[in-house]
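From the shared-data thread, chain only:
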Amino acid sequence: MPTVAFVDGVKIQFYPDEHPPPHFHAVFAEFVAQICIDPPKVLRGSLPQSKLNTVLTWTAGNRDGLMRAWAAIEAGRKPEKLA
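Structure, as tokens:
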């Protein structure tokens, strides 16, 4: 499961063999949430509210890079790191 970014201590990861809609996994301590890329929203799981707000804002600003990472995973390639 490649980690493409850290956002305020939250790991942003993509898992191989994923399913639509395009999403990533946000991991912080014992919390895990699946976050839809467009529109940014929680599909499953949870994060502390302050972390969730930060991740959703970051997602909106990094949509293109996240979609490239999703496409790379679907094609069996390693995604690029995001800032």
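The radius of gyration is 11 Å.
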